[in-house]
């Protein structure tokens, strides 16, 4: 069969399209994903082709003929031709981080960034993370409850990424004031819908983008004259065969690492604690056997990962899952759906921290795969490991204060709050 003889992806029916749109704030989006995997595994949705099966998602993420740069899409080019995109959005595209670059530029930038973002630097943060987690639990001890998101899941990753980057303590209240939803959507140009001239949110997105750029520009200049033991200083000195990062490249990298560095961990911690509390036998197993912590983090990433999807652009006509995806087409890889695919994970809706099928050949895709696999994954894992192990060890008889969790109303499916009733806390030692 030639590529021109492949099936054309069907358009999702209105009811399923509405259900898919609602997954960003749904308590349980997985029944929707199950139906999509079964009935519409490759389908047209919002000017893009969506993939829901594990094998199709994995193939796309590792494919050499896909891009993360919107400028390669047919939709972007048509909107430029029709003068529909905001000038500020278009000007920002040249300053994107390696997340939205393709080889060879992506390869060069990521290799240079990796020289500063090392395992040693991440491991050095463990005592800081442990102290911050214990302090949050100590505060909860006198109150009998812990609001996980506001007391720990959100402030901890923000403090950690500030510590890693070298953001001074006196600047952190200002940094923490940046609106979380706007940061997620606008730290870097990546949404053609938001970039449309008629979208009033674009003005606020541009303001936040400029604020991020200006702040990190100031910090880079400060570190050029007074370097320290932080990632900004490391990026300024990183080189490969005499090649270095430019100031603009460092600024784009810092914007990426700051936002992605905490958002991944916020959702991983929130979703993980929720899953453990909803499965008391798993909480008990982790409490009684702390060596299960690493596998518990992997199971959380598979069972209810931090991000629902990632986007790509086809650089050539593609054959994925028996369907024809034309060059220039936006493609959405639904990571959360792929990670519950029964063809890859037996009994996928069961939460089991002893699950044995997360070996390298059958690994979850929560942090992506291929050349764009999440660089900050090890940092988020480290934070989650310490949080899960410490909560299981120190909280006595914890339980959810509400019957249903409350999610934020955005596309990232992130908990707005998760109040926990705590009978008692054990000593940190």
From TrEMBL:
The keyword Ribosomal protein appears for this protein: no
Matching Gene3D superfamilies: Cytochrome P450
Biological or metabolic pathway of the protein: Antibiotic biosynthesis; vancomycin biosynthesis
Superkingdom of the source species: Bacteria
Key words, A-Z: Heme, Iron, Metal-binding, Monooxygenase, Oxidoreductase
Molecular function terms, GO-annotated: heme binding; iron ion binding; monooxygenase activity; oxidoreductase activity, acting on paired donors, with incorporation or reduction of molecular oxygen
Keyword Transmembrane belongs to the record: no
InterPro entries reported for this sequence: Cyt_P450, Cyt_P450_B, Cyt_P450_CS, Cyt_P450_sf
Matching SUPFAM superfamilies: Cytochrome P450 (SSF48264)
Any single Pfam family the record assigns to this protein: p450
Spans through the membrane: none
Similarity-based family: Belongs to the cytochrome P450 family.
Function, in words: Involved in the coupling of aromatic side chains of the heptapeptide of vancomycin.
Protein name: Cytochrome P450
Lineage, uppermost ranks: Bacteria, Bacillati, Actinomycetota, Actinomycetes, Pseudonocardiales
């Amino acid at each position: 069969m030639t590529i021109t003889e492949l099936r054309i992806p069907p358009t999702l029916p209105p009811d399923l399209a509405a259900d898919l749109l609602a997954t960003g704030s749904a308590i349980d989006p997985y029944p929707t994903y199950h139906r999509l995997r079964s009935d519409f595994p490759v389908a047209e949705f919002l000017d893009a082709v969506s993939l829901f099966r594990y094998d199709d998602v994995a193939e796309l993420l590792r494919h050499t003929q896909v891009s993360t740069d919107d400028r390669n899409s047919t939709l972007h080019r048509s909107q430029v031709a029709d003068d529909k995109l905001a000038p500020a959005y278009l000007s920002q595209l040249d300053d994107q981080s390696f997340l939205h670059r393709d080889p060879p530029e992506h390869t060069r930038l990521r290799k240079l960034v990796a020289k500063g973002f090392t395992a040693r630097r991440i491991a050095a943060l463990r005592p800081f993370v442990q102290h911050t987690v214990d302090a949050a639990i100590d505060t909860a001890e006198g109150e009998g409850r812990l609001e996980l998101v506001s007391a720990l899941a959100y402030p901890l990753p923000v403090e950690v990424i500030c510590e890693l980057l070298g953001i001074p303590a006196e600047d952190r209240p200002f940094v923490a004031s940046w609106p979380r939803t706007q940061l997620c959507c606008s730290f870097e140009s990546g949404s053609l819908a938001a970039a449309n001239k008629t979208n009033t949110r674009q003005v606020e997105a541009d303001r936040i983008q400029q604020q991020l750029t200006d702040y990190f520009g100031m910090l880079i200049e400060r570190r050029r004259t007074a370097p320290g033991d932080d990632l900004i200083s490391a990026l300024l000195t990183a080189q490969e065969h005499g090649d270095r990062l430019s100031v603009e490249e460092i600024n784009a990298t810092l914007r990426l690492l700051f936002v992605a560095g905490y958002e991944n961990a916020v959702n991983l911690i929130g979703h993980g604690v929720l899953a453990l509390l909803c499965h008391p036998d798993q909480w008990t197993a982790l409490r009684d056997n702390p060596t299960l912590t690493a596998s518990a983090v992997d199971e959380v990433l598979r069972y209810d990962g931090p991000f629902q999807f990632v986007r790509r652009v086809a650089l050539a006509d593609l054959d994925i899952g028996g369907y024809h995806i034309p060059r220039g087409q936006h493609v959405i890889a639904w990571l959360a759906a792929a990670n519950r695919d029964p063809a890859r994970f037996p009994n996928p809706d069961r939460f089991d921290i002893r699950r044995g099928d997360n070996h390298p050949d059958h690994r979850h895709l929560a942090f992506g795969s291929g050349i764009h696999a999440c660089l900050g994954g090890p940092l988020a894992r480290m934070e989650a490991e310490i949080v899960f192990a410490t909560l299981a060890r120190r909280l006595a008889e914890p339980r959810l204060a509400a019957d249903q969790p409350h999610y934020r109303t955005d596309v990232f499916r992130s908990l707005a709050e998760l109040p926990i009733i705590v009978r008692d806390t054990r000593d940190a030692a």
